[in-house]
Write a structure and sequence with these properties.
single chain; Spore Coat Polysaccharide Biosynthesis Protein SpsA, Chain A; Four Helix Bundle (Hemerythrin (Met), subunit A); 2 domains; 7-stranded mixed β-sheet; about 15% strand; disordered N terminus
Length: about 475
């Protein structure tokens, strides 16, 4: 079989194109009827709504974008140019030249798509997981509609609240908002096969400029429209943004979706509860993720200096400062994920600065304890424990870096090594010890903490060496 034919089949089976409609809704009211002046340029956690939609689609694997824009086209172009880099091609089609009620517009789009198209209005924030699920769910000749949680009564007049009547996971028909509160509502995003988008001989909806609802109703008769539910717990959430209260709800969902790869119990249930407040401040100030990393590092260095003073009050204050540094250290990743500014260098800088701060903390505690005990028998032991903790932490950092490279290349020698590495990175290599350090400082037992830190660093480095070395040898041979 010829390569061109195979390529065509891949294109037909996959979902790589998205069509955005900033000026209108797919099923609901036109954009110019939104309340509270919420539109495609509305800021949602540091990024405009349109820009966030585009970047989310890009991150979820969409490779081509078509924008049917109205008079706001220049503003939308400027918004994309001023933010994080958009690497996928974006084709702008002004609706004054390609009217949405003209069948020829959709015939042209069907020819451009050559497969499936995700069609969405720019009046919502949704997760990357939702788009990835839709890309996995495509089937030849079938359309997909997304079901969202039913809107509040106060929202139905704005959204239209179009209901989805279904049998199993198949759409049977649409219903008005007052049909049944238990029936889910249609989200303003759908997946259409190119064959369905060909508008020849298809009439338009009675209450819409778009023919999409009519196409879906006709396809539903043949059982060719599946329903995919947007679910918060599964990370496939969808949130309409039409009012100022919707903006707040969307921001909460974005913050709730944040989670680091190697965070521990304290990070998950304490640090991230506080870090979100600081993240909002950093976003408002326009700080980059790397700048936030430097802020956390500087606070950590001040904490180390406090420990080196050797007094009880300075030790407690230093421990609290280190806990603050741990909270702010969560913010760099949050800012990066919320603003789509993650980078390999930023990830490395975060880990590197964390370990440098930890080594400075251990050295500061050792210096402070030695200063307080100088002239006493055994005072040198604190310096020895400090040196072991620093060296063990440095070795652990190098081994963790190596483990991440092996993981990225998927070159673990055995599944057991991969499982152990994953366990160590997710459950041991965390900032949870910052809370225990506060407790040791309060009870004036920093010498105990230093001994535990030295032993823990050696044990962690030993386990990581056992995990990484066979795989590292296998990778290089």
């Amino acid at each position: 079989m010829k390569e061109s034919v195979l390529q065509k089949r891949v294109e037909i089976q996959g979902l790589a194109t998205a069509i955005l409609l900033p000026s209108v809704g797919i099923f609901s009211a036109p954009a110019d009827r939104r309340v509270d002046s919420v539109g495609p340029l509305t800021n949602v956690v540091g990024i405009g709504l349109f820009q966030r939609v585009v970047l989310t689609l890009q991150r979820s694997g969409i490779r081509q974008l078509i924008v049917l824009a109205g008079p706001e086209e220049d503003q939308l172009k400027q918004a994309l140019g001023n933010g994080p880099r958009v690497t996928i091609p974006v084709r702008w089609m002004p609706i004054r030249e390609f009217p949405l009620d003209d069948p020829r517009t959709w015939e042209f789009l069907a020819a451009e798509v050559r497969g499936f198209a995700l069609v969405a209005s720019v009046n919502a924030v949704f997760s990357r997981g939702l788009i990835e699920q839709l890309r996995r769910e495509v089937r030849d000749g079938e359309a997909i509609v997304v079901a969202q949680a039913r809107p509040r009564r106060s929202e139905e007049a704005t959204t239209g609240g179009l209901r989805l009547k279904a049998h199993d996971d198949r759409l049977t028909s649409f219903a008005p908002s007052h049909f049944d509160d238990s029936v889910p509502c249609a989200a303003e995003v759908t997946v259409l096969p190119a064959s369905l988008m060909n508008a020849s001989g298809h009439g338009l909806d009675d209450n819409s400029r778009l023919p999409i609802r009519r196409w879906l109703e006709r396809a539903a008769v043949d059982g060719r429209v599946r329903i995919v539910a947007a679910e918060d717990k599964r990370g496939t959430w969808y949130q309409e943004v039409r009012t100022s209260s919707d903006v707040s709800t969307a921001e909460k969902k974005l913050f709730n979706s944040l989670k680091g790869e190697t965070e521990g119990f304290v990070d998950r249930y304490f640090n991230r509860k506080l870090s979100r407040w600081f993240t909002r401040l950093f976003l408002a100030a326009g700080l980059s993720p790397n700048s936030v990393t430097i802020v956390a590092t500087l606070i950590g260095f001040v904490s180390a200096v406090g420990f080196a003073m050797g007094t009880y009050a300075a030790g407690v204050a230093a421990a609290l400062l280190f806990q603050l540094a741990a909270v702010i250290d969560c913010c760099d990743g949050e800012v990066a994920r919320l603003t789509f500014t993650e980078s390999p260098f930023g990830a490395w800088l975060d880990i590197a600065m964390d370990n440098i701060v930890h080594m400075a903390i251990f050295a500061g505690i050792a210096a402070g304890l030695y200063t307080a005990q100088v002239g006493q028998p055994g005072a040198w032991s604190t310096l020895a424990f400090g040196a072991v903790a620093v060296l063990g932490n440095g070795l652990s950092f190098l081994l963790v870096e190596r483990a991440q490279k092996v993981k990225a290349a998927n070159r673990w020698r055995t599944p057991a090594h991969a499982a152990w590495a994953d366990f160590m990175l997710k459950n041991v290599a965390s900032r949870d010890f910052s809370v225990t350090l506060v407790l040791f400082a309060l009870f004036a037992k920093l010498d105990w903490f230093l001994m535990f830190a030295a032993a823990g660093a050696l044990i962690f480095a030993g386990v990581m060496l056992w995990v990484v070395r066979p795989s590292a040898v296998t990778t290089t041979t």
